[in-house]
């Protein structure tokens, strides 16, 4: 196969590259599903114990940009090809111009900027290619890494739904963040100066 040149590739930046999720990526999904507390923060619930078959079926369902529940899934790789995470975009409400994005980074690769780098690509894609107007995020209280990432991306906290999510024996607040295309463009333009 001919060597791929990524010099002008839209789906990468100086840290990561996005690609289609592959059925062969099931092992990454399976192994990362043993991090129960991170899954609870992300999904707002305790997941059942992981199984190989469930991860294989899930990976088969979302491979090659197949849409699952209106979500399109991408693998997040370092520029040397190491799979570090997964990101998906929910384009379920194009009529109103809103969208959601979810990321999952393997524990050993967190805190290195991979999730933020992948989010930057997704925001650019949604705002500049899909003509969407607003990114919306719902974050469980205590998910400090996600809150910090959203603030770094320029998202604003728009509200708190008090005691809205029940998990781990109590009700938790749900923190709402948002970013409009207008604010996104202001942030991008100020970074270029």
Automatic annotation (TrEMBL):
PROSITE patterns: GNAT (PS51186). Residues 16-182 form the N-acetyltransferase domain. Pfam families: Acetyltransf_3. CDD domains: NAT_SF. InterPro entries: GNAT_dom. PANTHER family: GNAT-FAMILY ACETYLTRANSFERASE, SPERMIDINE N(1)-ACETYLTRANSFERASE. This is GNAT family N-acetyltransferase. It comes from Tissierella carlieri.
């Amino acid at each position: 196969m001919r060597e791929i040149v990524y010099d002008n590739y839209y789906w990468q930046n100086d840290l990561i590259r996005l690609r289609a999720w592959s059925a062969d990526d099931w092992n990454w999904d399976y192994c990362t599903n043993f991090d129960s507390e991170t899954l609870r923060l992300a999904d707002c619930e305790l997941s059942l114990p992981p199984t190989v078959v469930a991860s294989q079926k899930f990976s088969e369902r979302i491979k090659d940009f197949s849409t699952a529940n209106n979500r399109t899934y991408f693998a997040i790789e370092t520029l040397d090809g190491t799979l570090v995470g997964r990101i998906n975009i929910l384009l379920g409400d194009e009529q109103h111009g809103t969208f959601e994005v979810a990321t999952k980074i393997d524990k050993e690769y967190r805190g290195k900027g991979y999730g933020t780098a992948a989010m930057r690509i997704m925001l650019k894609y949604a705002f500049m290619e899909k003509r969407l107007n607003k990114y919306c995020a719902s974050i469980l209280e205590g998910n400090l890494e996600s809150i910090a990432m959203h603030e770094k991306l320029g998202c604003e906290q728009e509200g708190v739904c008090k005691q809205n999510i029940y998990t781990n024996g109590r009700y938790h607040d749900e923190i709402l963040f948002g970013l409009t295309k207008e604010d996104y463009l202001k942030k991008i333009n100020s970074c270029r100066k």
